[in-house]
Amino acid sequence: MASLTATHMQRVFTSRHIKFIVGNKGTCYTISEAALDRICPDGSFAYYLDFHKRHRGHHTGMPQIESPKLSDTVTWDVVDEDVFVRLMEYAYRGDYSVPALQKLDDKASLNHEMHCLDSRLAIRGDQCPNIASFFFELGKQFQEEAMKPFSHPNQSASVAFIDDIKQTDRVGHNEVFLCHIKLYQLAEDFRIRSLENLCEERLMKSLLFFPHHEVAIDDLFKVVAFVREQNMEHIRGILLDFFVIEFPNLRTYPEFSELIMGDARFGLEFIERLPGGLHSQWQA
User: What is the pLDDT of residue 103?
Assistant: First the structure.
């Protein structure tokens, strides 16, 4: 999705402006309708803004219309303010910012540090016998999907995002994962397919490149809990694939057993994806 052209910029300044009341603090934003139309070519934004009706989405909650007049006011009290800001970043410039990880001075506290999935996939598959090769092949498939070329609005921004997530002395992965996931929710509600694709791509890259130290893994389990609570089927499937690939490394964490045993559906689907030997062993 390209940045605004001169023609689009002129439309932004001349089109109707919509007042958004966002988040639990009720922060007010004024947004150009032309910018909204750019990201919803099917008119889904116009539908919710121009008709005097209430509608709530299956995830984040659609806007509640207070007035159908030209100066429409839309209340999004259930949408996080930072998610709304990133949606508007995408509307105006075709990209969105990603939270930067925080540097941890005491790296010694990151015990049980492990390499990211991407670096471990550098091992040749024929060096991994039997069951181990199964996880290697799944990992390569995940890697290929994550690195599949999408239409990047900003190549340099994508490179900077990956460089940040790779750093081993950083924390705050929960905010990065949830940034992509929550924005995906909103994009899914409004059928903004290009943004859905971008969020999915960046989530998969985050999973592929983040270092597996204990703080980051703890954040990962928090993210899984959020996705389960929100009933996000597609994102849940991505996380399930990742957990199957990383089973040899994640099985030592007590949170892993709690997840598999505590969520019957997740656990069953997880077990069914394991190779035969591990499948019967886990069921036993």
Answer: 86
